[in-house]
Structure formats: structure tokens, C-alpha cells
Amino acid sequence: MPLPIVQVSADERERGVLTPDRLTEAHRILRQAGFVILKDALDEVLVERLVAAHEVELEKAKRNTKPEELAKHKGQFGVGCPMEGVFLDPRVIANPLAMQVIEAEMGKKVFSLLPYGTNTSWPQSGVQHLHRDTGHLFPETPHILPATLIVVNIPLMDFTVENGATEAYPGSHLVADGDLGRDVTLEERAATMPSVRVESPLGSLVVRDMRVWHRGMPNRTDKPRSMIALVYFRQLHHLPDSMVVAPPVPRAVWERLSDAAKQVYRYNPIQD
Ligand SMILES: O=C(O)CCC(=O)C(=O)O
Q1: CA distances (Å), 200 to each of 2, 124, 176, in order?
Q2: pLDDT tens, 47-75?
Q3: Among 41, 180, 202, 228, which residue is least crowded by beta carbons within 10 Å?
């Protein structure tokens, strides 16, 4: 099965704007497959800085993570990204190309929360359990609504089968759950569905409806395989739900954000 990829042009990347046709194509693929890879969406220099900054965080995590903890998560264990430097670059936290695709699907009332982290598959990791990151809004009914939660993953190396590229089930975000027998596992349901390995190259962005069935896969190399994970919410009501979960962002960090990022992260509590 071919991967759902859209090639971004140098002009689109530099201007931070997808052409109307490209946006339509990316949005159509997101709706059909549940995810879309925007290839070459990120500037090379930015990616190099991001990879280097993440290496530092990985080293810290290596020192601070107990082997038992890694084993507990089968080596699928994320690393936090500090609210500083390149980690706050607007092309990372509110990438204009990704935001266009997200807003095409979820409308303008979108927000996100700082800080964010990574999904890291450590060397010798096992197969993660198959899961959706979020269920349907009305799981007991047969109704499938538009996405309300979208994650943007930024691969920090070329993702390959060898280093544990995520396995995902195209179209599974549209599969209803309400009429299933209670003891059917997701693995049993997935057994008759086609899947792909999301082999996303460095420089790409993966925009995914968080209802898509997926799992981290074994990393058979000796280097950790990481991707940044930024979650975007559709604001459903007047106030966002569960704001209490958002940790406060220091005012000095807030003041360094671009206007576009301030708009996206507007519900983060700010600490003076
Ligand atoms: O690291 C991966 O390949 C997938 C991990 C993931 O998406 C998750 O834990 O929800």
C-alpha cells in the first residue's frame, strides 16, 4: 500500500503557505487515510538544530532513565522537550503548513499546550500495544465525527522499518466502535485490515488524526529513534476542557513566542 505522502515545494516551505491545490490534496488524504506526510515541509537548517538540541535531551534521558522503566514500556518511552531555543521556533510549535491542514479539518478554533515531548523508540525496543490515542466523541453510537485531536509528529531522523517506523492503519480513524462485541481486541480487529509503516524522512511532518490505530515498532538499530509530538485540540465549547492539566509556562518563555504561536497556545496558564 503506498504511503500517504504530499511533496511540499521549496517555495511553499519558504513562504509557509501551501498552494490551494496542495492543501486540498493534503486535507483529502488526511480525511481518507487519517494521516498525511508533508515531505520536505521543514527547512534543513532548522531540522539540524532541532536534531542537535534533541540529542542533548536524549543524553540527559539516557542518564536519568532506569533500565526497569524502559523495560516497563518495552523501550517505547518519550523524552520531554524544554521550553527554550529551537524547541520554541514557530516553525516547530505552530508550523504554518501543518496549521493549514489542521485548520482545514478542525476549523480555526484550534489550540495546543506547552510543553510537549517526543515518542522515542530505544534500541532493542519491543512492539507497542496497538491503540488509538483518542476514541470517538460518541463511542456508543455509530456516528463518526470530524477529527477533534490531531498530532503533528516531526521525525528527528529518517524513519525506516529497521529503526522502528510506526505502524499505522489507514482509514482506521473512521471505524466505529459502538457495535463491537466486548471481548474483541484491537489486535483481532486489525488482523483483517491493511497497515503501513510510516517511513517518514527527516524534514517531513506527519499530521495524524489521533483516532488512527497505530503502534511503535521494534528499533533494531543502536540509535534511539525519536519524533516530536505536538497535539492540537479543536475547542468544542466556550472554554477548553480540563485546563487544569496544563502546567504553567513562565512569562519569559511566553514573551519569546511569535504572535502566531501565542494564538495557538493561548490557553496555557502563564506564571509571573
Ligand atoms: O513511537 C511510535 O512509533 C508511536 C508511539 C505513539 O504514537 C504512541 O505512543 O502513542
Answers
A1: 12, 20, 27
A2: 999 999 999 999 999 898 888 888 888 88
A3: 180
Q: How far is the CA of 24 from the centre of ligand 1 (A)?
A: 27
Domains of the chain: which residue ranges? 5-271
d(CA 16, CA 18): 7
Helix (H) or strand (E) holding 93: helix 90-93
What residue ranges line ligand 1, CB within 6 angstroms? 76, 119, 121, 128, 133, 166, 214, 216
Q: Whose CA is nearest to atom 4 of ligand 1?
A: 216
Q: How confident is the model at residue 179 (pLDDT cuts 50, 70, 90)?
A: low
Which of ligand 1's atoms lies nearest the C-alpha of 119? Answer: 1
Closest ligand 1 atom to residue 164 Cα is: 3
Tell me: the pLDDT tens digits for 116-162? 999 999 999 999 999 999 999 988 888 899 999 999 999 999 999 99
Nearest to 153 by CA among 127, 119, 126, 180: 119
Candidates 228, 267, 268, 232; CA nearest to 104 is 232
Condensed to tens digits (0 to 9), the pLDDT of residues 8-47 reads 999 999 999 999 999 999 999 999 999 999 999 999 999 9
Overall fold of domain 5-271: Jelly Rolls (2.60.120)
Distance 235 CA to ligand 1 centre (A): 24
